Amino acid sequence: MSFDSGPLDRYLSSAFGDNPAMAMDLRVAFTGSARDLADLMRRARCDANWEMAALRLKGLSATFGVVPLIELAEEAMAGAPGDPAVLRQINQALDDIA
Q: Domain residues of the chain, as ranges?
């Protein structure tokens, strides 16, 4: 899966215009929060915790219009809790954003 960070870049550009430092700070905050949620998913010991972390990742991603992460979060919720393949894809998408 290729990652298009266009929606996030457009959001940051419209929010901060010519202030690249603020845009970078928000990008770092977004990826940090998303990584924390991916880590919660990795450490989930029950279906409910997996589902909750995936739902929060979906909501965070939707706030910034990051459609690939929304889709991966939905895939996680529809699939088996603890699925290492979807976790790898989520982490790869976050690496591509950073």
A: 6-97
